[in-house]
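re: the backbone from monday

yeah here it is again, tokenized this time
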């Protein structure tokens, strides 16, 4: 399937198309390969910061994989009103990392999981339920800017992986030539195969690049196989492993962060549907947000961290032209199986950070590019809209690069305004709403009413919304 010119990118497989099973499995593995290390890294970092035992750490990693898989399956196929029927890969976001580490160290993990239980579906469920009313406030200009900032502020994370990640920092090898060389190898192979080849080789360019990078890492003795031997073959989830406590401060912080998560999901969904040259519809928005909130709250019962859409995988869709939700559904099945078998998951997590760094840099760059594309397709870049873009990205990137700039604010305000996504989104939302323009929900509506007379055409320019 391919789109009409100007409607979106050339798609090899559309939303409801099913590639052959063998190809679908490989494409699904490619999605898993890109997200599994960053998703599980959150669990490892929080566990280390809080001081959890090896057994507790392994269990949380297992649950992160299991619920990432379940949430991905629900997004692809839906359960009642829950799920978007879109190719959205779910995982644990770095958005929650700082709060989980701090609250876990100060109040214990029971307070972390208690806050997730209360705020997950309460915040995102409410947003999803009422999204039809707030949808006019999120036109392509706003959602496109959210997609752009998600990609841009993740670029330092990709560079961190490319330089060797946390393990390299601890070993004093951060930025060493062998790490940079591995990342460059993966990046060069992925770009080369995607740009210069056709067919299955192009579609699996990222997976091939990661595989080659992994083999090269083994050859130069950069892979530690010890986690494989230490992991069990099968582990069964156990509910309320850490208990629940309900600390008001923790609940307030997580309520803010789930608002950030909702905005990220709205942006990621827009990045996905941009491949078809459109914005998500109300049902898709509502179903995706319900999945974020419900699966996060349910997962807290089994000691997993919040699940949300994974931006890196949005880039895969744009990069490969494979939008099939059935491929992503297979990714969810793979993740769920990995979550039930820690030994299999341990094999994947032996891949060095530098190998993923090359792929991550490419993916987050594609996310930012898809956001720019969404804006350009549906927004006239006149003076008004250029100012909104400038202010929103300026504030978002400013806080991402200089978070200490708001160190004088109260702690709760630092947590809220210290998030690049939420600062960009709020700036774009406020300016777009209150400055007259065709995408403003206030002034666009007024223009439509004024144009209800004999010649309505000039009075209501297209806002680009479906």
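seq for it, each position gets an aa:
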């Amino acid at each position: 399937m391919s789109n009409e010119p100007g409607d979106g990118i050339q798609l090899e497989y559309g939303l409801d198309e099913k590639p052959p099973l063998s190809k679908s499995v490989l494409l699904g593995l490619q999605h898993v390969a890109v997200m599994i290390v960053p998703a599980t890294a959150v669990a490892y970092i929080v566990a280390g910061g809080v001081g959890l035992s090896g057994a507790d750490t392994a269990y949380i990693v297992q649950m992160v994989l299991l619920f990432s898989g379940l949430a991905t399956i629900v997004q692809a196929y839906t359960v009642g009103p829950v799920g978007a029927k879109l190719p959205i890969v779910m995982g644990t976001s770095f958005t929650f990392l700082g709060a989980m580490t701090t609250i876990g160290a100060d109040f214990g993990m029971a307070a972390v999981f208690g806050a997730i239980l209360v705020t997950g579906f309460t915040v995102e469920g409410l947003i999803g339920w009422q999204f039809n009313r707030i949808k006019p406030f999120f036109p392509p200009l706003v959602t496109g800017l959210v997609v752009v900032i998600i990609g841009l502020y993740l670029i330092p994370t990709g560079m961190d992986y490319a330089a060797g990640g946390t393990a390299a920092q601890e070993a004093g090898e951060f930025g060493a030539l062998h790490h940079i060389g591995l990342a460059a190898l993966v990046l060069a192979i992925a770009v080369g195969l995607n740009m210069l080849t056709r067919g299955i080789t192009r579609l699996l360019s990222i997976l091939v690049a990661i595989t080659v990078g992994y083999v090269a890492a083994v050859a130069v003795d950069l892979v530690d196989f010890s986690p494989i031997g230490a992991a069990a073959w099968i582990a069964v989830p156990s509910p309320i492993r850490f208990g629940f406590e309900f600390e008001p401060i923790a609940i307030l912080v997580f309520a803010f962060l789930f608002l950030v998560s909702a905005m990220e999901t709205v942006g990621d969904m827009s990045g996905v549907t941009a491949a078809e040259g459109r914005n998500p519809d109300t049902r898709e928005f509502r179903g995706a947000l319900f999945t974020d909130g419900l699966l996060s709250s349910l997962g807290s019962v089994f000691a997993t961290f919040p699940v949300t859409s994974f931006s890196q995988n949005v880039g895969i869709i744009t990069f490969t032209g494979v939008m099939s939700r059935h491929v992503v559904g297979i990714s969810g099945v793979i993740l769920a199986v990995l979550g039930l078998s820690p030994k299999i998951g341990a094999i994947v997590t032996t891949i060095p950070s530098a190998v993923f760094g090359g792929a991550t840099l490419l993916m987050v760059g594609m996310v930012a590019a898809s956001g720019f594309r969404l804006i350009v397709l549906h927004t006239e870049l006149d003076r008004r809209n250029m100012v909104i873009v400038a202010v929103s990205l300026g504030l978002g990137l400013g806080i991402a690069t200089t978070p200490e700039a708001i160190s004088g604010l109260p702690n709760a305000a630092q947590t809220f305004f210290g998030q690049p996504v939420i600062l960009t989104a709020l700036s774009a939302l406020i300016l777009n709403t209150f400055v007259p323009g065709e995408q403003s929900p206030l002034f666009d509506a007024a223009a439509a009413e004024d144009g209800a007379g004999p010649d309505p055409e000039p009075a209501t320019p297209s806002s680009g919304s479906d």
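Strands lie at 90-92, 307-309. The chain has a mean pLDDT of 83.
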